[in-house]
Design a protein that fits this description.
501 residues; alpha+beta; Sulfite Oxidase, Chain A, domain 2; 5-stranded antiparallel sheet; 12 helices; binds the ligand Nc1nc2c(c(=O)[nH]1)N[C@H]1C(S)=C(S)[C@@H](COP(=O)(O)O)O[C@H]1N2; binds molybdenum atom
Length: 501
């Protein structure tokens, strides 16, 4: 297993028996059990899972060893079956190639070899029933000792030595894998089309308001993965295929060599509830989607869908029109001045202003297939979510917090509002069901970016109900009708209660 882990580090990290079996366990675990594990172990869930895989494999291998002392063929067979299962887990991953066989096969061969060697060696140390005539020459005696095979102590030493070698191999492999995951040394060129200066946000003056730009470390994260993929940027590429004039592929270096666009864009998850946290704003740096599609040639395409595939075969659908209607759709390589963090899609992801993430923001993207919605369906489409899912006009109260206690006096009600593609004109606040009052607006970064707002409030003692609604630049008023996130995004007015004392 240790040798396989090291070989995986040198070839395909995900084909390491530990990772391959771990991922398969995750995939086969029923959702309720998965959620229980995430609640129980939090961010340690990954370590607990991988640790369990190692312990279970060691126990099973020990069992195979015990069996092998009496029936070597059976013991070795059990070990080969174990390695075979890990190999199967590795090669059945989407996108797996012939190289994925290497670690598992190496585990089978080296495991079987080592076990046979240990068993044979131990068999030869079995105490001789008839020591035979004792020679009186010391030299001859020591020679006889050797031909009788090694001592039990020798077998123990050999086992300890093997364990040490294995630990060394595994540690080296793990160290190499971690090193390969470090992406800090990816440096991106400047934008040919920069975003321009970024205004100072209200967070400087209105305590409790969401900052105008979300730091990458605080950006919400939504995806189906329990373990982040480890993408080797040197072998990664992005392919455009399907209904195009010519299939094209881009390496990371080829993408960074193209003219890059930089934009401040607010992303939103369709699962965001009214007043929820699944929304974030960042400065994205990337290649315009249109430039990439033009390289593939889409003049005569009959496609209406871009089917994006990530490194693990996860698919997201995006309407082709968003690449061509002039909005700043891009394949982003950078976020807030650095390469994409691993959890936000390193090395590349799609960013489309105005569409919920599940129909646009494919992280760890490797392929864009031009096709039709009739011909092929993406992951969430198969699960009955909407295919055409523009982000609804929405606003959120950040301060004061719902159900909080405040001291009577001069308070400030503040928050954010978004209407990507159109822009936010104004926000209105309703206190205790009275008439809507206009809030003071923060800087207008661009129409694809959220806007901060606040309203000074002289709070009298008692329980108060605060609500907000956004009005977009085209006059659209945030909808009051209550919708659940499924299937095309939540709607409704957020109203919170606060106690003033
Ligand atoms: N490969 C992949 N990309 C994905 C997802 C996913 O599960 N897998 N989730 C999508 C969803 S639902 C959203 S809202 C955005 C969230 O992006 P973030 O995690 O960077 O905020 O990523 C999208 N891209
Ligand atoms: Mo989402």
């Amino acid at each position: 297993m240790a040798l396989a882990h090291l070989l995986a580090a040198l070839t395909v990290p995900d084909a390491s028996p530990v990772y391959a079996v771990g991922s398969t366990v995750v995939d086969l675990t029923p959702t309720p059990l998965k959620e229980w594990a995430i609640r129980q172990f939090g961010t340690a869930d990954k370590a607990v899972l991988l640790g369990s895989v190692v312990v279970v494999v060691l126990l099973l291998a020990a069992l195979a060893g015990v069996v092998a002392r009496r029936r070597p063929a059976l013991g070795v067979g059990a070990l080969v079956v174990l390695a075979g299962l890990a190999t199967t887990a590795a090669v059945t991953r989407p996108g797996a190639g012939a190289l994925d066989l290497v670690p598992g096969v190496a585990a089978a061969v080296s495991g079987a070899g080592v076990l046979l060697w240990l068993v044979r060696w131990e068999a030869r140390t079995a105490p001789a029933t008839d020591p035979g005539p004792i020679d009186d020459s010391a030299i001859e005696r020591s020679a006889a000792d050797q031909s009788a095979g090694p001592s039990r102590r020798g077998v123990l030493l050999a086992s300890a030595g093997l364990t040490a070698v294995a630990a060394g191999l595994a540690t080296t492999g793990e160290w190499m894998l971690r090193r390969a995951r470090q992406i800090a040394d990816v440096v991106l060129p400047r934008a040919a089309d920069p975003a321009g200066p970024f205004p100072t946000g209200l967070e400087e003056t209105v305590p409790g308001v969401t900052p105008l730009r979300t730091p990458s470390g605080e950006f919400y994260r939504i995806d189906t993965r329990l373990m982040l993929p480890r993408v080797d940027v040197d072998s990664w590429s992005l392919t455009i295929d399907g209904d195009v004039a010519r299939e094209v592929s881009f390496t990371f270096d080829e993408l960074t060599a193209m003219p890059l666009t930089e934009r401040d864009i607010t992303l939103t998850c369709v699962s965001n509830e009214v007043g929820g946290q699944y929304v974030g704003s960042a400065r994205w740096l990337g290649v315009p989607l249109r430039d990439l599609l033009e390289r593939a040639g889409i003049e005569d395409t009959g496609a209406d869908q871009i089917l994006s595939t990530d490194v693990d075969g996860m698919t997201l659908s995006t309407p082709l029109t968003v690449a061509l209607d002039g909005r700043d759709s891009m394949i982003a390589l950078g976020m807030n001045g650095s390469a994409l963090p691993l959890q936000h899609g390193f090395p590349a992801r799609m960013v489309v202003p105005g569409l919920y993430g599940f129909v646009s923001a494919c992280k760890w993207i490797t392929r864009m297939t031009l096709t039709t919605y009739d011909a092929e369906q993406a992951y969430w489409t198969e699960r009955e979510w909407a295919t055409d899912a523009p982000i609804r006009v929405a606003s959120r109260i950040d301060t004061p917090k719902a159900l909080s206690r405040q001291e009577a006096g001069e308070l400030v009600i503040g928050g954010i509002a978004w209407a990507q593609r159109v822009g936010i004109e104004r926000v209105e606040v309703r206190i205790d069901g009275q008439a809507w009052r206009e809030a003071v607006m923060g800087p207008d970064v661009n129409d694809d970016h959220w806007r901060q707002w606040y309203l000074p409030w002289r709070a009298e003692p008692g329980t108060h109900y605060l609500a907000c609604r956004a009005i977009a630049k085209d006059g659209t008023v945030q909808e009051a009708v209550r919708r659940t996130p499924f299937p095309s995004g939540s709607s409704g007015i957020q109203e919170i209660a606060v106690t003033v004392t």
